[in-house]
Design goal:
The structure holds two protein chains of two kinds. In chain A, helix 2 packs antiparallel against helix 6 and helix 3 (44-52) crosses helix 6 (142-158). Chain A has helices at 10-16, 21-31, 44-52, 87-96, 108-112, 142-158, 162-183, and strands at residues 36-40, 75-79, 102-106, 133-135. Chain A contains seven helices and four strands; from the N terminus they run ααβαβαβαβαα. The two termini of chain A are 18 Å apart. In chain A, helix 3 (44-52) links the parallel strand 1 and strand 2. Chain A folds into two domains: 1-17 and 160-184, no CATH class; 33-158, Rossmann fold (3-Layer(aba) Sandwich), CATH 3.40.50. Chain B has one domain (3-162): NADH:ubiquinone oxidoreductase Nqo5 subunit (Beta Polymerase, domain 2), CATH 3.30.460.80. Classes of the chains: A alpha/beta, B alpha/beta. Chains A and B meet through helix 4 of A and loops of B.
């Protein structure tokens, strides 16, 4: 088959990530106009506020305007512990966001469950939705969050966000099917 | 502090009180399960008691409990006494505090509900039911309060597995290895090593 179609490994991603000039221009625009949806469930929210506030100023990176509707946002910040009971709500929020979309897990609880290894806490938000960047820390320093934003922007520019890769995969599959139908 | 309450309880409901004790300034009365509602009603309505303030309701799981200073031969003399249901009450008029305890056996986890006397116990008893599985008889709406309907078991019981998860949703594109239960994975690993050892 050549390109493996059911993986998100980076070496395969590199094959897909060949971009046209239009892709590069589009991704350049995307990375400077992130609209965040803060899914704030716990104490990490205080750190998120300090990052979004004037001192650390997330607006420098274009992520200026938190939208409180998932339909108007393309960056989901999962800030705090996700319980098993919240899983369906989180998945629904993610499904409602506009494509392409990116996810940052903010803090250890959202990344791995942190010290909540018991009946109620989900061991990482990536059990339910694909996460692009994980930020460790309990809670993380604002500098770590800014670092994660820069990492995410690099990823967007390279076309390696999970939703971007999914789009690419679907395009490749569609092209293959079109080829196959022509051959027949 | 509130020794008067224990004395009055023993005087008026001698048959219902199993024993009383005082610990760290808290007065505790162990009440027979079928008499709890009568004792609590009397505590609330008697003008000399007037317990008008419910403080908390919870349960204690005594599974594998090893009390200090008691010989091991006496630990499980009566296996029926696995759970204790505690009600902490307060009288704001007389400044009394008292704790009522009821022992509940594992095979029959029922306890009379006090939500009809103090409505604030309604949600607390639901939480106790949610976490320990104590069935409060006479409760107006006994169902889970924190956990979801699909949850099986009672997580604060001592025999609930610590690592057990009951997910509502999961991604469908995760690697298959992580979906295999841990017990099966260890079995597979053990089988592989056994094959390697045979020549």
């Amino acid at each position: 088959m050549g390109v493996e179609l059911t993986t998100t490994r980076l070496e395969d991603a590199a094959k897909w990530a060949k971009q046209s000039k239009l892709d590069r221009a589009t991704n350049w625009g995307r990375k400077f106009s992130l609209f965040t949806y803060p899914f704030v469930t716990a104490c990490c929210g205080m750190e998120f506020m300090s990052v979004a506030g004037p001192k650390y100023d997330l607006a420098r990176f274009g992520a200026e305007f938190p939208r409180f509707s998932p339909r108007q946002s393309d960056l989901l910040m999962i800030v705090g512990t996700i319980t098993e009971k919240q899983g369906p709500a989180l998945k629904r929020v993610y499904d409602q966001m506009t494509e392409p979309k990116w996810v940052i897990a903010f803090g250890v609880c959202a990344s791995t469950g942190g010290f909540y290894q018991n009946y109620h806490a989900m061991p990482g938000a990536d059990q339910v939705i694909p996460v692009d960047v994980y930020i460790p820390g309990c809670p993380p320093r604002p500098e770590q969050v800014l670092d994660a934003m820069i990492m995410l922007m690099d990823r967007i520019q390279a076309g390696r966000g999970h939703s971007q890769l999914r789009d690419k995969r679907e395009q490749i599959i569609a092209a293959r099917e079109a080829e196959a139908s022509v051959d027949e | 502090m509130s020794q008067k309450v224990l004395d009055a309880l023993k005087a008026s409901h001698a048959s219902a009180i199993e024993r009383t004790e005082s610990e760290h300034g808290d007065e505790i009365a162990w009440v027979k399960r079928d008499q709890l509602l009568a004792v609590a009603t009397w505590l609330r309505d008697d003008p000399a008691m007037a317990f008008d303030s419910p403080v908390f309701c919870t349960a204690i799981d005594r599974l594998d409990w090893r009390p200090l200073g008691v010989p091991p031969s006496q630990h499980f003399k009566d296996e029926n006494l696995r759970f204790e249901v505690c009600y902490q009450l307060r009288s704001s008029r007389h400044r009394y505090r008292v704790r009522l305890k009821v022992t509940v056996p594992e095979h029959d986890p029922r306890c009379p509900s006090l939500a009809s006397l103090w409505p604030a116990f309604d949600w607390q008893e639901r939480e106790t039911f949610d976490m320990y599985g104590i069935r409060f008889e006479g409760h107006p709406d006994l169902r889970r309060i924190f956990l979801y309907e699909e949850f099986v078991g009672y997580p604060l019981r001592k025999d609930y597995p610590k690592e057990k998860r009951q997910p509502l949703v999961r991604r469908d594109d995760l690697p298959i290895a992580s979906k295999t239960p841990t017990s099966e994975r260890t079995e597979i690993a053990a089988g592989d090593s056994g094959d390697e050892e045979t020549p």
